[in-house]
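Sequence design from tokenized structure. All designs in this work follow the same two-part layout: the structure record, then the generated sequence. An example of the structure record is given first.
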């Protein structure tokens, strides 16, 4: 991808254009050169649009229009069932976009018929860069598959490690609890911070990006602790849910130390999912974990 400094980036979604004003990173002693990266997040609703129609071609087109290097996906089916044609949605989208994929299941159930693939549902990362490592972390969850669930550790907090023009990047993708009671989200945020701190210590100098559907707006008290280590790239952008006429901003691109946000937006994609995507242009500072 070319450097987008001093340009306006046009994103096309079903004929609508989103312009991102991108500022040039300032020259600063000790910061080193910045590496551009475009990241996005999208709750794809298992490929079903706001019109209730499953259409993977439409979903792939919406993702392609983002022109992102790295995309975090939520509500991803892998042979889950009839609602998504029993397809490996993560693998299909990666194939159609020519990207690498890492899938982190939240649920992995026995097949309906013996010998069939496991029925899985979770989150995924699509990347133009080789995936050097991948981990499916556990965070607190309240299962939707149990009749009487209790909060307990469960998988589905995905992490991949990339190297972007020599800069190591840890990309995390998550889907926080949807219930009105924030108690589970409070626990999930604590788990998220603990895991990201541990992973940061394990790979000194790595930049961190957290993508996801947080199911809460930026001012929600349960999200407050996240903003101690992360910057919300979408500050000042529009709402993301529901896609047809969004009123809430619950989908996020967030970045840690050494990652500078150059521009972000919410494309006017109203049909491919029940959420709208978020896309951000960022730059990775090569030297030192500098926070602007």
């Amino acid at each position: 991808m070319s450097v987008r400094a001093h340009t306006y980036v046009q994103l096309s979604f079903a004929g609508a254009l989103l312009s991102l004003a991108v500022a040039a990173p300032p020259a600063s002693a000790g910061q080193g050169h910045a590496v551009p990266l475009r990241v996005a997040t999208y709750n794809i609703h298992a490929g079903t649009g706001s019109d209730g129609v499953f259409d993977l071609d439409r979903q792939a087109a919406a993702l392609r229009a983002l022109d992102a290097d790295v995309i975090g996906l939520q509500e991803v089916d892998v042979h889950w069932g009839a609602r998504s044609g029993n397809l490996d949605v993560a693998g299909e989208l990666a194939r159609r976009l020519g990207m690498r994929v890492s899938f982190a299941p939240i649920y992995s159930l026995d097949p309906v018929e013996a010998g069939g693939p496991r029925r899985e549902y979770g989150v995924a990362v699509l990347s133009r860069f080789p995936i050097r490592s991948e981990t499916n972390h556990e965070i607190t969850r309240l299962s939707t598959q149990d009749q009487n669930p209790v909060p307990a550790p469960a998988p589905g907090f995905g992490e991949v490690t990339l190297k972007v023009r020599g800069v190591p990047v840890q990309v995390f993708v998550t889907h926080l609890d949807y219930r009105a009671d924030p108690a589970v989200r409070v626990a999930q945020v604590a788990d998220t911070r603990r895991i990201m701190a541990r992973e940061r210590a394990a790979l000194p100098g790595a930049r961190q990006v957290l993508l996801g559907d947080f199911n809460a707006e930026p001012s929600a008290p349960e999200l407050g602790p996240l903003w101690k280590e992360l910057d919300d790239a979408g500050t000042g952008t529009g709402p993301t849910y529901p896609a047809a006429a969004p009123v809430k901003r619950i989908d996020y691109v967030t970045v840690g130390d050494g990652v500078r946000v150059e521009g972000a937006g919410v494309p006017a994609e109203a049909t491919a999912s029940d959420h709208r995507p978020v896309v951000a242009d960022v730059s990775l500072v090569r030297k030192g974990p500098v926070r602007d």
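Helices lie at 56-66, 89-97, 183-202. We note this feature because it recurs in several other targets discussed in the main text.
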